[in-house]
Amino acid sequence: MHIASFFLALLPLMPLCGAVAAIVFSRGEDRRAFFWTRAGVLLSFLDCLFLVAAPKGGGDVRVFLFPDVFSRTPGPDVGLCFDPLAAIMSFLILSVSLVILTFSWRYMTGEPRADRFLAAIGLATGFLLFLVTARNLLLLYAAWEMVLVALCLLLIHHRQRRESSQPALRTWVMNQIGGGLFLAGILLLGHSAGTYDMDGLFAQLGIGADRAGVGFLTRGMSQTAIVWGTFFIGAGILVRSAQIPFHLWLPVTLDAPTPVSGFMHAGIVNAGGFILNRLSPVFDHSPYVLHGLFLVGALTAICGSAMMLVQVSVKQTLVYSTMGQMGYMFAECGLGVFPAAIFHMIAHGIFKATLFLGSGSIIHAARFHEHSPKGSVARALGRHRILWVLGGSLLVSLPLILLLSDTFRGKPFLPGTGGMILLFFGLATAMQTVFNLFRFSHLLTPRAVLVFTGIFALVFGLYWGGLSWFDRILAPISTTSTLTPEGPGWSFFYPVALLTMGFILVAGWIFLARETSSGWKFPGSSRISDHLHDFLDQGGYAEMLIRHGLREPLLSLCQTIRNIHERTGTGSSPESVLTGKPDV
């Protein structure tokens, strides 16, 4: 075995060994548990750096673990692969895990079962590394299932509290539904290809699309199996990534300790985006599935961001922000821009972990600003309103400027409607940022506005420019789709864009009418905005619909069955059970 292959085998095993050692040797002391868990993650981090720097002989580092008994064709055994995508994701997971572990050790000091909590973080880290390095579909599924087990162990840390046990149960049930769909998809693909090895699967896909005809050129796979396999895989990923309408399990997990929320939103929830990129050559042959992913992602991005704006809880705001950003990632994948989704995933993971770990300081600072001046935007801006308007205009115009600059250079980022759709989401993100600036205008000075605008412009420019670098790094494994670079056609884009822009204009009109002290107001704006606020604050009433449309009928059915069982157990006749009348 090559030395690099040996270290690749140790990469996911060291965090797992550290977690097991923390359980066995800590003796209930959180300091010892922290030492063993951090040692395993830190050694794995150094291992990752070695694998990145080690000479690979012109190829990726690979290691075989055990024979593949499920494949019908002779081929490589089940193993791991350390390619550029795995290297990037491993570095992200280990970096976030080290920060979360250090934070958790201080956060959980004096808590009961803190050693188990730290060990569960180590387990989740190790299984995530198995997930990002797996090159077999069944190993990928098994690793994702074990990540779910570790997540539920973290969610039920306060198991004596009902607020912790019920969300953990809902998370388990919803994710098992997604896992079942995902398993059905990979079984379809593996059975059709005759192998569950990703290299063998990709080799069966041929060279691309038959644009002149109606089908796709594949060497040994059924097009029906490809479509249905990607459909089930995509549906399972949507469920586990909390996309609408499967998002109800994510907002109820906030009772878990803050480090759990930070780790979950930075490295676990967005695992679905990684799997989409890993299987991008397969999805490249299912353009209609990609269009469906785009529609669901776009809807989640808009609704999640809108729900985020009306939340009063800091952690609740971050939860719906994660929903919106994950929707944005799925929209990028649906357009075939897979490297952009990976870049977005990394930026979002680091950003969201920082926000969750710092959420306590926001609440602490709010105690010292209880008497901050509040009121309308016009009064809060005062004589600096021109500066605010200029800064907001610059933020909103940045996506358009960057897109036009690519067009003038003759290298458009995405031709046709694909670029226009990404431009639209860039505009929506900028307008959301401006809205948040106006909400907290009473806390910001003009200098802070200029600094924030400059930072946003720098980050947005680096984001747009960094996509080409990511495209080159991930070119061999996750390229921009050659089948669907333009996204849906103009006949689809125009109505959606007009309706959405109309919604934004009406919402802005209502907002200004409520915030300004003078001027004509939209008729019935207060009533409309109140209903809209309640709708968004309640998560689109999805919880209520499930409670009254599914939960209560099922509970009623269970109670009826229980009554029937009790009556039949006492010797009552079927007629008395059905009519409710006692026997004569």
UniProtKB/TrEMBL annotation:
Keywords: Membrane, Transmembrane, Transmembrane helix, Ubiquinone. It is found in: Endomembrane system; Membrane. GO terms for biological process: ATP synthesis coupled electron transport; electron transport coupled proton transport. It holds the Pfam family Proton_antipo_N. One of its GO terms (cellular component) is membrane. Residues 134-399 form the NADH:quinone oxidoreductase/Mrp antiporter transmembrane domain. PANTHER family: INORGANIC CARBON TRANSPORTER SUBUNIT DABB-RELATED, NADH-UBIQUINONE OXIDOREDUCTASE CHAIN 5. This is NADH/Ubiquinone/plastoquinone (Complex I). The lineage of its organism: Bacteria, Pseudomonadati, Nitrospirota, Nitrospiria, Nitrospirales.
